Structure formats: C-alpha cells, structure tokens
Amino acid sequence: MVSKFDTIVVGLGAMGSAAIYRLAKRGISVLGLDRFSTPHDRGSSHGQSRIIRQALGEGEAYVPLVLRSYELWREIEKITNTELLTITGGLTLESKTHDAVMHGRRDFVNEAIRCAKKFDIRHEILEAADIRRRYPQFVVTDERAYFEYETGFLRPELCIDAQLHLARRHGARIQTGEFVVSIENSGNSGVTVTTSRGTYCAEKTIVSAGPWITRFLPPAYSHLFKVSRQVMYWFEISENRRASFAAPGFPIFIWIFATGAEFGFYGFPTLDGETIKIATETFNAITDPDDVPHPVSMGEEQCMYKNYVQGRLRGISDRCRSAASCLYTTTPDSDFVIGGHPDNDRVIIASPCSGHGFKHSAAIGEVLAEQVIDGKSKIDISSFSLKRFKDHGEI
Asked: What angle do CA 298, 301, 304 make, to 5 degrees?
C-alpha cells in the first residue's frame, strides 16, 4: 500500500528541517525523509556553530531572509526553551591589498556596509588603529573592518533537532536511514517518491538534499553544482590568553586577505574556554559526497596554522585539539538555488547554498511552506531560481 501525504521533504538538514516544521505547523500532512540519522555529520550542517550576520556582503537580496530568520530562531528558542542563537558582535576585516572573492563578491565589505545603511543595521567602521585598540588579539597591518553589533552564531545540530522535534509535535512523519531512489510524476496530480524502503505519494515535494542535489536534477544541470570538502579546526588557546578569546571581548570574525576564492579565514569566540574554532574555504578539489575523506590529517592541521593563524592571532597555539570536515555545494555565482524543478512544477528545489546558507534556513523553511500552501512567498526569492542559469546561457 502506498502512503499518501500533502508534501514530502527529501533531506532534513538546515533547509529541510525548517521546511517540514513550517509545513506541519500550518496543518499540512508531511513526510520527511533523510538517508542518515539527523542531525548528522555527513553533509553541511554540523560542527557546533554557524555564523549569523545581518548586513550581507553577498548582496541585499539575502537581508530580508536573514532578518526574518533572527525572528524565527528566537521564536523557536522560546517554544523549545533551547538556546540556539548567541550574539557576540562580528568583525569583518579586509586587507587593503587583498584580491579575494568572498562568496562570489569581490567588494564584500563595501556591499555589507551598503546593506547596513539601507536596512538601518547597527554597525561601525574601524581602521587598523581602532582594531588594535579594541581587539589586540588580531595582528593587523593595513586592515579596516566592518563591525556589526548583532552578529553571532547558531548551534546547527540543536537548530535542526529543535525543528524536527516541533515538526513531530505538529504531526509530521519523519523517517531517517532511508535512501531516495527516484522522484517522478504520478499522473496529473502528484509526485511519487520511491525509496530503499517504500513508495510514497504527495501533491508536492521539496528536495533539500544538499550535496546530493544533482541526483534529482536533469544531467544538463549537473555541472552547475560543485561539491568541495571543507575543514573546521579547533586550536588550543595559550593558557594565559584564554579569557581574551571569550565573548564579548572577542567577536565572530571573517578576515579577507588572500587571493581568488580562498579569501582568508573566519572564526568564533571560545565555547569551551580552551579552544577556538577557525576555518577557511578551499575549492581546489571537487568531490563526490559519497566518497569524502572525513578524517583530517595532521598535515592539514599544520598548514592551517602556518598559512592562516600564525602571525594573525596572538595567543593561539599550533596544537589542534580536533578537526572535522563538512561539504559545500557551490553554484557558479555563489548564490542559492530555491525554486521550481526545471522539468516538474510539483517539485521545489531548496539547495545548495554555496557555504553561506545556515543563517537563512529558518526563513527559507517558511518561504518553502508558503510556496507549497499559498503558491508564493512573502519574501522575494526570484533571483535564486534555476532559470537564471538558462538565461545566462549556462544550460
């Protein structure tokens, strides 16, 4: 017997967990499927923390999404009595001699400043002397910085867990450890999803499969999505410096100083009082999400310290306490893909997010629910349609 639902959500990471919660909250009969037990460490939504910021160098189209997400994260915290979002303040440093592209934007800091002014987001511009005085942990030379007061971090595993819990509370059915084999039209009124364990039908399907997204798209679109392995590191703080790397004395930071897509690195205040999490973004090697080398080598740890940390952060030891890999799925313009499937108007694609999506995911879940139920969303997401690649001759 085939089980029937109003909507099926394939993939229950950042976007999928938010979507299934918002659908269930509005009374939709919804099934959520994930090939792993969620939350898990095989995709893009793990590692203790994700940055959330308001004025976005990625462009003003993202600002309404993130501002709405701030509201929704606070709403979820209140309902679940769980701390998900911590405000620390955030510093984006930019070398005056860099030639880097950050999330597809060469003028990242100026765009963030423009967004801050347009949306009345509280911020400051700091010159090198200001940075040295306020944050002596940073070894700066010619840098300037954009400081945003409401920047902070989310706890991704807790965010996903909270939304799945709420989805179940509202009647959603969630099945993990279930591999989706195919998604096909079933006549004129629905979609059939076949998995390793069964067959399900629904009026609509949302596919939020992260690095596995190309398996649900026509082959002509595969070249648009590049999966790369990224690594997060937790380096020890020198014992006599540990207090100086705690918030609010030490902020979230993004430091742009390199060339090309490898912009520099970013990091967080200490969560455990002994280590700080830092990471960079590398796109040299394209990988298969089912064949990713998850262990991080000692050589990788040493390179991270030598190439990024050493000479830039005072008080950070070269000893890496732990490290973990995750996956980015990046589009040619580094923008999101949210919108209709090119061959099936009953399927909505909500992935990938080019390494900067988690902060927006609560609002994207709401947007997806509105699209399914109302046929359109309150926030304009037209710039994230797959159609843009065809318009630009990339398909």
From this structure: 150
Q: Map 208-243 to HEC letters.
A: CCHHHHHHHCCHHHHHHCEEEEEEEEEEEECHHHHH
214, two tokens = 């190309």
Q: Which residue in 82, 81, 106 sits closest to 94, CA to CA?
A: 106
Torsion of CA 229, 232, 233, 237, to 10 degrees: 160
pLDDT of 150: 98
Place of tokens 């900067």: 356
For strands 199-207 and 3-10, give the pairing. parallel
- The DSSP code sequence of 315-364 is TEEEEEEEEEEEEEEE-TTS---EEEETTEEEEEEE---TT--GGGHHHH
pLDDT along the chain (395 residues), means of 10: 91 97 98 93 92 97 98 98 98 88 89 98 98 98 96 98 98 97 87 96 97 95 94 97 96 90 91 97 86 88 97 97 95 95 95 91 98 96 95 88
Angle at 153 between CA 147 and CA 156, to 5 degrees: 155
373: three-class secondary structure by DSSP: helix
Q: How far is CA 12 from CA 35, 38, 71, 178, 326, in A?
A: 9, 7, 21, 11, 16
Q: What does the alpha-carbon distance between residue 352 and residue 45 come to, in Å, rounded to a whole number?
A: 12
Beta bridge partners of 182: 194
Question: What's the CA gap between 68 and 259, in Å, rounded?
Answer: 33
Whole-angstrom CA distances from 312 to 3, 140, 274, 305 are 57, 7, 18, 10
Distances 108 to 173, 191, 383 between C-alpha atoms, Å: 41, 41, 19
Sign of CA dihedral 38, 272, 310, 359: positive
Q: Residue with structure tokens 């997806």?
A: 368
What pTM did the predictor assign?
0.96
Q: Which pLDDT does position 101 carry in this prediction?
A: 83
Contact of 334 with 209, CB cutoff 8 Å: no
Sequence-distant (≥ 6) Cβ neighbours of residue 280 within 8 angstroms: 230, 231, 262, 263, 264, 265, 266, 304, 308
- Label the pairing between strands 338-341 and 344-350: antiparallel
**Structure-token pair, residue 209:** 């499969």
Tokens of 232: 């997060």
